[in-house]
Design goal:
The complex is a heterotrimer.
Chain A (H helix, E strand, L loop, with lengths): L4 H23 L3 H26 L8 H16 L5 H23 L4 H21 L1 H4 L12 E2 L8 E2 L3 H23 L2 H11 L1 H6 L4 H27 L9 H14 L4 H22 L5 H18 L3 H20 L1
Antiparallel strand pairs in A: 1-2
Helix pairs in contact in A: 1-7, 2-7, 2-10, 2-11, 2-12, 3-4, 3-10, 4-10, 8-10, 11-12, 12-14
Chain B lengths: L1 H7 L9 E10 L2 E11 L4 E5 L6 H8 L7 E6 L2 E2 L5 H6 L2 E3 L12 H15 L8 H22 L14 H13 L5 E5 L7 H16 L3 E5 L3 H7 L2 E6 L2 E6 L1 H6 L1 H8 L2
Parallel strand pairs in B: 3-8, 3-9, 6-7, 7-8
Antiparallel strand pairs in B: 1-2, 1-4, 4-5, 9-10
Chain C lengths: L4 H32 L6 H16 L7 H24 L7 H23 L4 E2 L3 H4 L1 E2 L6 E2 H23 L1 H11 L1 H6 L4 H23 L4 E2 L3 H15 L5 H22 L4 H15 L12
Antiparallel strand pairs in C: 1-4, 2-3
Helix pairs in contact in C: 1-6, 1-9, 1-10, 1-11, 2-3, 2-4, 2-9, 2-10, 3-9, 6-7, 6-9, 10-11, 10-12, 11-12
Chain lengths: 335, 265, 294
């Protein structure tokens, strides 16, 4: 296959993004900047994993924070009680959350469309309520605290370094984003991705060309669950505290805003939405906390979400590509 | 033309490609099909006709696994496929089109074809997860087949357009090409001539006859009687879910029961 | 612990009122879903806004009789529903369920945070003289407010049955809920009906809020839980079947009351959602058969 401009295009934005993110701390290492960057990494991973299900196979799961929460609680146990290392915790969490996703998927994919959304939302609420009530297991509303911080031991080092500074966390976290991007691209730009699209657009038609919709839904769900489970595991070790509210519905709302305002089912859309809406809150807080309360920020988000749904169904990404196309058109005509 | 001769020769006993035995399908107590028997021989062009609501599309859905009939069996190449999943049945070599034209609108025209082929390529590959070596070859092959089919139906210049940008007639051609793509033995078309202009009706007829010459078997539901008479070797008539007649086009034209079902007393 | 009839009856009554209350909240949502085909994730928030309306009306300098206030809340909530329909629902009515869901989730965010900005997160109580009056016929203690809820709920359900089966508008709604395309073909203005249905759903929600909030309190984020409970009832009732949704709401109220009373109060919501999730797996088409529409 010849490598054309066309086939390279999907890689441009993620590579530019990663280069910027890798270099930024060299110029500015303030706590604010690092905090924002870590936030961007976290939300991008979360949004990409969410989009595998919501954007690509079209099943809007409102229960994805379950994998995050259980992955985090699992890590608190594995790292705190069993002394498992950080990478081990992430892998075990990813594995079990993929397994959970498969089992849950077998049940939940019996229902579809809006019923699926309602069912997964119900599951999310049950999980959060259980986490709140099962105080012996989770600490309830008082949270599980004291999750050990990661220790990094590389071959040339004499003793392990305890990862505790934000900059260390950030550079250890960044490869996980790269991995997520690679998985996302590898899946969606391949035949599997084509089958995902087929399943999303028309399940009946998909079965008529030999695709078993459930199989692909499970693949997407398990991948998403694994990535989010690993993310929860990582986050538990970064903030050292896990609360039932880490699975709250506003997490899902943020994901919906990022993915659907940015542009669902498209990498550039998720990147645009994820970056904008993970940078915006800290900036609004820093700049405008004097002028407006968090409620106004949320109202703004709500308005943006509704506005995009009403006037830009393709999201910001669709708008951007329309503008780009127009510029190209003008340039061509000019020459 | 050899295969057609074979199937039309009297006395030559050849197992049918598709056999439907005593299919009954009810919806909430309403009988949509009642004890229908029918068969399609290899290489044949058979039409399934009948007034609206007579059960033609229900029969299609029972054969292709989208409906589960309450009674009866569907046999394909002598093997029972009655309660198999639609995707399994397609992979055995029965493809179909839909009355209301189904394509994947956001996939490109080429990808619509490629996605119709890929599952068939991977079907016999148990190492689905680890096929990295074979997958490139498969993909090249899929594109090759897709392009030759686009040439056949005259959509080459639309190759990289989203299927959503096709007009109705072009969508029908694309859906037809998708049905051919995995090299099936039996192609089931649900109203191939409905809603398109006369030029395209002629193109569709020509395509069916050409593809049939290459040995493909057709089972067609169609309302346009001109088309049915021109392309069918045998016609099966359904009315109120029961088979009321079966025969060559000329015989069907004369059949009083058919005339009654279509035009009233 | 010996079985005590009094406690049992108490739980039963509690379950009945809880169920009646859930069904009143669900009714507005299931109507719009059944007739318009839109699942409104901001439904509970409409209830919340109606609750604050009641709070404001009760705290006005002029003291109005409760009946007048209830009527005002009903009218105002119907008006809010119409505004919402015009601004946000009408433009997307022909779009996919995904657009419906996300738009109404956006609406929910706006309403919840607008309420937060205006009223803060503190719960506001709206006691009426009735909610504190307790009567005890046959030795069973029940507050008058609860009794009113039970009676009004029964009247509303009966009214809906009559409305749907015996009025022209109701019959039209029923027809649309069963076959929208056909109704468009025969020239029924489905968009006008959508607006009317929204107004009706709003009115019922306003009535529910005016009756129920005096027993509890209003706070900005209360809508989420109401929405999800109503949605659960609708799914269990068989997606869009009005009667099914009402039965399912009653069932949820009973489960919560008895489980909360006899087993564990902390886990009552877990159990009622657990039942919902279980129903999804066992009977994805709902508990009460698969008849379509109203």
């Amino acid at each position: 296959m010849n490598i054309s401009k066309q086939s390279l295009r999907p890689f441009i934005l993620p590579i530019v993004l990663l280069v910027i993110m890798a270099l930024l701390p060299l110029f500015n290492q303030s706590g604010f900047t690092l905090n924002v960057l870590i936030n961007v990494v976290r939300w991008l991973i979360f949004a990409l994993a969410f989009d595998l299900v919501a954007g690509h196979i079209g099943s809007v799961s409102l229960g994805q924070p379950i994998f995050y929460g259980i992955g985090a609680y699992l890590t608190a146990y594995l790292a705190g009680k069993l002394g498992l290392g950080w990478l081990g915790c992430m892998l075990v969490s990813a594995f079990f959350m993929a397994l959970l996703a498969l089992l849950a998927g077998l049940a939940f994919f019996r229902i579809r469309h809006v019923t699926f959304a309602i069912g997964t939302l119900g599951a999310a609420i049950v999980t959060q309520l259980v986490a709140n009530s099962a105080e012996k297991l989770t600490g309830g509303a008082l949270c599980t605290t004291g999750v050990p911080r990661p220790q990094l031991l590389l071959p040339f080092m004499e003793s392990a370094i305890k990862i505790s500074k934000p900059i260390q966390f950030y550079y250890l976290f960044l490869p996980f984003l790269i991995l997520t991007l690679v998985v996302y691209l590898a899946v969606t730009k391949s035949r599997i991705g084509r089958a995902f699209t087929a399943v999303r657009e028309d399940e009946v038609r998909a079965s008529a060309v030999g695709i078993y919709p459930l199989r692909y839904k499970l693949v997407a769900f398990a991948l998403s669950g694994a990535l989010i489970g690993a993310l929860g595991s990582w986050q538990a070790q970064y903030v050292t505290v896990i609360c039932p509210s880490d699975m709250a519905q506003d997490i899902t709302t943020s994901l919906l805003i990022m993915v659907f305002v940015g542009g669902a089912g498209r990498l550039s859309g998720v990147i645009i939405g994820g970056v904008i809406f993970s940078i915006l809150p800290p900036f609004l807080q820093a700049v405008g906390s004097k002028y407006f309360q968090p409620a106004y920020q949320q109202i703004l988000y709500g308005l943006i979400l509704v506005g995009v749904m009403l006037y830009m169904p393709d999201g910001l990404d669709g708008l951007a590509s329309r503008i780009l196309r127009r510029f190209r058109g003008i340039r061509k005509e000019g020459v | 033309m050899e295969m057609q001769h074979q199937s039309n020769q009297p006395g030559v006993q050849q197992p049918p490609l598709l056999e439907v035995r005593g299919i009954t399908k009810r919806f909430d107590g309403v009988v949509a099909l009642h004890q229908v028997n029918m068969h399609v021989n290899p290489g044949e062009r058979v039409s399934l006709i009948g007034p609206n609501g007579s059960g033609k599309t229900t029969m299609f859905n029972c054969i292709t696994g989208f409906y589960r009939p309450e009674e009866g069996q569907v046999l394909y190449k002598g093997k029972e496929i009655t309660y198999k999943r639609p995707d399994k049945i397609v992979l055995q070599g029965i493809t179909r089109t839909f009355q209301n034209v189904k394509i994947f609108p956001t996939l490109t025209v080429l990808d619509n074809l490629a996605v119709s082929i890929q599952q068939h390529q991977e079907e016999n590959l148990l190492k689905r997860v680890f096929y990295t070596g074979g997958i490139k070859k498969f993909e090249r092959k899929a594109v090759e087949i897709s392009e030759s089919l686009l040439e056949l139906v005259g959509l080459v210049q639309m190759r990289n357009e989203r299927a959503a940008s096709l007009v109705y007639g072009q969508r029908k051609l694309l859906e037809f090409a998708c049905a051919l793509a995995p090299d099936p033995d039996l192609i089931m078309l649900d109203e191939p001539a409905a809603g398109v202009n006369t030029a395209m009706v002629d193109q569709m007829k020509r395509l069916i006859l050409d593809v049939n010459k290459q040995g493909k078997t057709f089972l067609i539901v169609e309302h346009n009687m001109g088309v049915v008479m021109d392309i069918s070797q045998r016609i099966i008539v359904l009315d109120y879910g029961e088979k009321i007649a079966e025969g060559k086009p000329a015989e069907i034209k004369q059949d009083p029961r058919v005339q009654e079902a279509y035009f009233g007393k | 612990m010996p079985f005590q009839l009094e406690i049992f009856i108490n739980h039963l009554l509690n379950g009945l009122t809880l169920g009646a209350l859930y069904s009143l909240v669900t009714l507005g949502l299931v109507l719009t879903f059944s007739v318009i085909g839109i699942v409104n994730f901001a439904h509970g928030d409409l209830f919340m806004v109606a609750g604050y309306t009641l709070f404001l009306l009760l705290n006005m300098s002029i003291e109005l009789p409760y009946v007048v206030i209830v009527a005002l809340v009903i009218l105002l909530t119907a008006f809010y529903a119409v505004v919402i329909e015009r601004l946000a629902i009408h433009p997307i009515i022909e779009k996919s369920w995904r657009t419906h869901a996300i738009t109404t989730i956006g609406l929910s965010i706006i309403l919840q945070n607008a309420a937060l900005a205006i009223f803060s997160a503190d719960p506001r109580t709206t006691p009426t003289s009735l909610s504190n009056t307790v009567i005890s016929p046959l030795g069973i203690r029940i507050s008058v407010q609860r009794l009113i809820i039970l009676v009004v709920a029964a009247l509303v359900f009966a009214g809906i049955q009559v409305f749907v089966k015996h009025t022209k508008l109701g019959k039209t709604m029923r027809a649309i809920s069963q076959n929208r395309e056909m109704c468009q073909v025969v020239g029924i203005n489905t968009r006008k009906i959508a607006l009317i249905t929204f107004a009706l759903g709003g009115a019922i929600t306003g009535l529910a809020a005016a009756l129920i909030t005096p027993l509890f309190s209003v706070y900005n984020s209360m809508g989420s839980m109401l929405t999800i409970k109503s949605l659960a009832a609708i799914v269990m009732g068989g997606m869009g079947q009005v009667n099914g949704a009402i039965y399912a709401s009653m069932l949820m109220g009973m489960i919560e009351s008895f489980f909360g009373g006899y087993v564990s109060f902390a886990y009552k919501d877990v159990v009622s959602f657990g039942v919902f999730v279980l129903v999804l797996f066992i009977r994805p088409t709902g508990l009460f058969g698969k008849k379509v529409g109203l």
